[in-house]
Amino acid sequence: MSSESFKMHIPDVIAHRGFSAENPENTLISYENAIKAGTTALEMDIRLSKDNEIVMMHDTTLNRTTTGLGQVRDHDWHGDIDQLLTKAEPRQAIPRLNDVLDLITQPHVSKSLYSIIDIKYDNPIEILDYLQSLLENYSKKHPDLIHRLIIGIWNVEFMKRAKELFPQYKLCFIGLSLSAARSHFLDTVDCLSLPFAALVDQDGQSFIEEVHMRKKQVFTWTINDPLQMKSCVLLQVDGVIGDSVTSLLEHVQHKPRSLKDTEEYLSFIESDTYLQSKRTRLYFYLIKKTMSLASWKLVGV
Hints:
It comes from Rhizopus delemar (strain RA 99-880 / ATCC MYA-4621 / FGSC 9543 / NRRL 43880). The protein is of the alpha/beta class. The protein has one domain: Phosphatidylinositol (PI) phosphodiesterase (TIM Barrel). The protein is built from 12 helices and 9 strands. The chain has an 8-stranded parallel beta barrel, surrounded by 5 helices. The chain is globular, with a radius of gyration of 19 Å. The N terminus is likely disordered.
């Protein structure tokens, strides 16, 4: 490798449910602190309430993260979910997507910051219509949002509807199965988001090359181990999704950027021993197989 060919592929840092390592997930303080820490992007989960408000929530129920109980879909936002707090400290209110949009469109927030809206497969498909209506209203005042929001979809039915409703927005396949990504989404989306285990073998590396040949992006999740962060750099993924923004910035961006020449880069490669262990490779192989089966059973692809 000559000095002329020395070039690092620096992934984006994508804050998983905000800076969730230090803040209650999917809350305004979590997103605010991720932005302050210097994240490249935000990842966020949405659910539809009984009165059709788009609520920031990963789970189908309120039980795990809030002081409420029951399915999000069975509770009104107004007068119910808006009165709840997170279980995690510091206690926070449960925001809606429009609250987060208010945050990221503030003048002090860089327009280079983008967000991935993760719409889980177990949402009612009507959530896409309510999302389209909300974004249509916001984009009138903030037209740059069209280029700053990525719509994340898990299954074929939702993707078909999303392509109809969001022709100007980037679409992202989020899923567990590499074969599903190849068969159903590779040629129809702008980016693909897959778990680390799906990408670490030779097939996964070939997939990343396929995606890049099509001028598209690959994201991976959920990365909280510094050794995995280093491997992500060498896998040449485009975005690394994790809970700790500061740790991700250090290992995914700052350390790689500190390499001065080809010799340091080669040393960086040689020191990456995380995936050399047979036990580690077997572990990820088994996870990958399990996830493919789960994808078929849960999502149908």
